[in-house]
Amino acid sequence: MFIAGDIGGTSTRLGLYSSKNGFLCVESIKHYKSAEFDSLEDAVKRFLKEHDAVVDALCLGVPGPVRGGCVQLTNLPWEFSEDSLRSSLALSRVKVVNDLFAVAAAVPHLGEADVETLHQGGSVHPNNRIAVLAPGTGLGHASAAKVGEHWEVFCSEGGHIDFAPRDEFSLELLRFLFKKFKKRVSYERVLSGPGLVNMYEFLGTLDLYHEPELTGEDLPRQISEKGISGESQRAAKTLDMFCRILGGLAGNCVLYNMCTGGIYLGGGIPPKILRKLKDGAAQKEYVRQGRMSPIVEDAPLRVITNDQAGMLGSAVLARELSER
Q1: Residues 288 and 257 in one domain
Q2: Mean pLDDT of the region 307-312
Q3: Residues 76, 204: one domain?
Q4: pTM higher than 0.85, yes or no?
Q5: What confidence category does residue 65 fall into, taking pLDDT thresholds of 50, 70 and 90?
Q6: Full domain range(s) for residue 67
Q7: Using N-to-C axis directions, what is the helix angle for 82-89 and 40-50, rounded to 10°?
């Protein structure tokens, strides 16, 4: 048996899995409040104590960069590494990966019920490369390629590449963001929760979108909800810009890695604005890639609707460790 985990600032999810006849079997999944523990090791030890099982591998997906097996979490004071986990938990097979790395590892194992298709794609090009774009608190990115019968996953900081306008209106947005941040502007400044707020602020500088200002906590959620309901014209335009820019970037992702197996939209935002994503604007920008449009038209565009995808990916990676 092996353990998979999805570690977050608020919640720590740990699961006990086994593998039978090539299928992953969920034995148990527990949710803990991260703040209840002084360390990750304490959380895993409690999980092990609650489950009388022989475990030979552990894989965790974490929200932050992993360098040389060492972890820097953004919203938790926990400090750990693969070596410290091996020592503390008496496990020889331990792997820690970025949470987007885990989601990318899950993609080949997702079923039809786990995704919503925005663009079907075709079958002209190979389906052996995929990418994940995940707008949420930030903009995550990862990719995977099938080598033989095995999927290799690749880390990326693609969310931090330069934002590239595709029309005059988004060019004005870029000029606004240059003034606001006084430095280069990445896609994360646009395609994220804070990015929604940045675009909403930009629209507030235009005469057409003068209306009562949204205030209070969790502005990204308010913008999404009032944009979808149509209660706010400014919020609706913000969502429209978000979806168009996301679609354009997703099409670019197909081209720069030849990810003709498809682009998968993960993170917290796409499932919440699925109704808006399905109205056609994102798909139009996705395939609008000039002379390279036929390549992108052949690649599917999908939204990951299964919020357990990170756990599934960690379990897939833990099984690989266990079988070595």
Answers
A1: yes
A2: 95
A3: no
A4: yes
A5: confident
A6: 2-105+308-322
A7: 40
